[in-house]
Amino acid sequence: MEGVDLAARVAQLERELSSAKAKLLELRDQRDLLEMEVDDLRFQLGKPQVSVEQLQDVEKYKRKMEEYFDRLTLLELVVKRYQTHVESGENKNISDLKTLIQPFHPRVQQIVSAVKASFDKFDEDAHLIKACEAAFDKSKEIRSIPGIGLQFWLSIDEMLDNKLADYDDKAMLVCSILRALGADASVVIVELSDASTRPLVSLKFGEKSVFIDPNSQHDFYAYFGDQSTALGRMDFDGRKVTKLLHQFNDREYVQHAAA
Q: What is Dmax (Cα atoms) for the chain?
């Protein structure tokens, strides 16, 4: 009898153990689900709450962007229609290009005064290179944009007021500032390996040159050295400088033999 009762008791304990294991697995699954819900709740609580007013603002900005896009499309159509007429008044000959370098422009002089004021008793011989570096860094506030397919020159006031310029205009502005500082600076138009052109600014300090790409954010001394070495280090998305075409400032224009 005791043997029968013992066997029955063992069988019952095994069933209870099996049931307990099943319950434990169920509880573990519930725990895992609960942890996931808690994590999700923490994530939701950590996110900034978006109000109805904010959603309305988003829709307002979206409509505004669509309006701007439509206006730009209309302006593009107008520009294309009158492109020939506009460009007829924007053509520049060699002497005209020199006039685009304007070291004595009042706004340029203001920038130069601010740069010089950052030095304790500015001395051109001692501080010129550092002043040119400061001026180049200041010019980075002007956003560079690719050309719009229309020959059109921006004035210095237009560039400074709107904080933007196309590649050629930006080079003219930077050269104007550097010339106003007293530097031997000129705009240099180079040809790249894909036959496109790029405006640079050249600075000469004795036997050494500094080439600046006004339309990038590089360090001032990135292209410092003799001309061949400095230009050889330049890379424009895989395109290299192949030759100099021409260069100019407010005083002279040079057509390079390699052009």
A: 124
